Every structure is written in structure tokens, then in C-alpha cells.
């Protein structure tokens, strides 16, 4: 597996760090146009990423590319950018994992899903990170099997 992050501070930084600790491969999708802008203007880290794509799209443009570059997405805590990423993933019907009890906008996702009246297909929830990843992998594998059957 490849861990793709928004190449920022906080959870994306720690996700990349954890992936590298486990000998994983990491990709960062940066809002900046170059390494210099990434580090100087945005003041973002660049320590645990194997490959960085510099988009030059700012945060909101980067979010669209970032989410569409993944097979599945995990959300942990977060603020308005996380909410933007969630709505992109939700609209694109990506498999989504929600790590419960982490604070921020994630604590509001259940309410957002309720008032949006759009269902909870492709979304798994858990407060245990390992169980959440297992559920999400199972969801991705199920979708792959169903897609393979449709394409026969």
C-alpha cells in the first residue's frame, strides 16, 4: 500500500511518519508550486515523504487532486480542510474510514451525514485505528471484486 497525504503538518505529517516507520511508501500532494514555496511560503514539512507532487493549486485545489489520487480515505480529527476533503471523497463515492473519538470536524460527520440525507454507503466507522484500517481494506477489496464481476 501507498500512503498519500496532503503533505502538511498535523495528522498528514504523522501518517507519513508512521508509514515510513513501517517501511511504507509515501506520497505527498502539496498545495505549493515548488519545494521552495512548500517550505518558505506554506512553511510545511518535507521529512517523511518519498515523492511529492507540487500542484500550485493552494489548499482547496490540492484537496481535489489529493482525494482523487486515492483508492480510499481515512479521516482523523481535522478542521475545515478535512471537511472539504471529506465532501470531495463523499461526492466521489470513495471508500471512507472515519476514526471516531478524535475531535474536530470528525465528531460532526455523523450529524452531517444525517442532515444531508444521502446515506452512508462506502463509509466505515471505528474508534480503533487497526480495526478501522481492516474494515476499510475489506471495503476496497469488496468494491474491486464487484467491479471485476461487472467487467466480465
Average pLDDT, to the nearest integer?
95
Biggest sheet details: 3 strands, parallel
SSE series: EHEHEHEHEHEH
How are the strands ordered across the major sheet?
Answer: 1-2-3
Percent helix among the residues?
40-55%
Shape: globular
Radius of gyration: 16 Å
Distance from first to last alpha carbon: 26 Å
Number of domains: 2
Number of beta strands? 6
> Strand share of the residues?
15-25%
Tell me the structural class. alpha/beta
Uncertain segments are none
Please give the count of helices: 6
Task: Describe the model.
The protein is built from six helices and six strands; from the N terminus they run E-H-E-H-E-H-E-H-E-H-E-H. The chain has a three-stranded parallel beta sheet. The chain folds into two domains: 70 residues, 3-Layer(aba) Sandwich (Rossmann fold); 81 residues, no CATH class. The longest helix is centred in the last third of the chain and has 22 residues. With 152 residues, it is α/β, with parallel strands linked by helices.
Amino acid at each position: 500500500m501507498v500512503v498519500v497525504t496532503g503533505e502538511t503538518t498535523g495528522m498528514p505529517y504523522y501518517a507519513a511518519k508512521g508509514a515510513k516507520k513501517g517501511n511504507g511508501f509515501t506520497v505527498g500532494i502539496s498545495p505549493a508550486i515548488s519545494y521552495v514555496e512548500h517550505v518558505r511560503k506554506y512553511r510545511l514539512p518535507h521529512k517523511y515523504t518519498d515523492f511529492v507532487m507540487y500542484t500550485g493549486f493552494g489548499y482547496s485545489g490540492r484537496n481535489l487532486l489529493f482525494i482523487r489520487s486515492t483508492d480510499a480515505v481515512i479521516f482523523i480529527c481535522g478542521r475545515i480542510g478535512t471537511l472539504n476533503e471529506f465532501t470531495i471523497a463523499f461526492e466521489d463515492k470513495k471508500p471512507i474510514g472515519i476514526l471516531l473519538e478524535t475531535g474536530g470536524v470528525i465528531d460532526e460527520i455523523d450529524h452531517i451525514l444525517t442532515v444531508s440525507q444521502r446515506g452512508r454507503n462506502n463509509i466505515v466507522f471505528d474508534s480503533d485505528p487497526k480495526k478501522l484500517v481492516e474494515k476499510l481494506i475489506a471495503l476496497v477489496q469488496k468494491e474491486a471484486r464487484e467491479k471485476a464481476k461487472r467487467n466480465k
